[in-house]
Amino acid sequence: KGVQAAKKDQKADRYSDLAAYYKDQLMDFKKAESCYLKALAIETDPDELHELEWELASLCFRMRRFKDARLHAQKSLEHFARTKWASEEIYLNYRPYRPARLMRQAWIYICLGETEKGLSYFHQMNECLRCRQCRHQVCFESYLYLAMYYEAIEDYDQAIAYYEKSLQANPHSITARATLTHLQRQLAKKK
Description:
- The chain is an all-alpha fold.
- 72% of the residues lie in helices and 0% in strands.
- The chain is built from 11 helices and no strands.
- The chain is globular.
């Protein structure tokens, strides 16, 4: 209902928020993908298109649709080239949000097959200042996204270890708890 009630210039944001809810809390990747695609169809801002495409890339990667992940990652970089950022270096060195930006670029590189570079960006998230609004001692999201990566490549022991590290750093993370619980249920079904 919130999407239909939204003003035209807010619909893409609402679809994106709904997609994040489906993805991060309900683990319903198909519905999340549908919402991201609807947002993508109506968004025109290059920064937002860059954002939506990396979200779709990471989602497809987590669904093990690696070819689709690569396509969305490439499109994300195409949109990035049309943003106000002169280079990736300038974009990444914006200190108030460096960890969040490292995460976005990490997913893009992983989806493009540059796994080492992507994983190094995830690790760098803990080597710099926290994002402006972050209250945590370490970047719990670094561990969270590493867990998601390892889950996608079916290295479940590593995934569980990183989900647990993420929860140690932020015991209140709904996404970390939901993804860990979902993975544990999936593994229990396989036994």
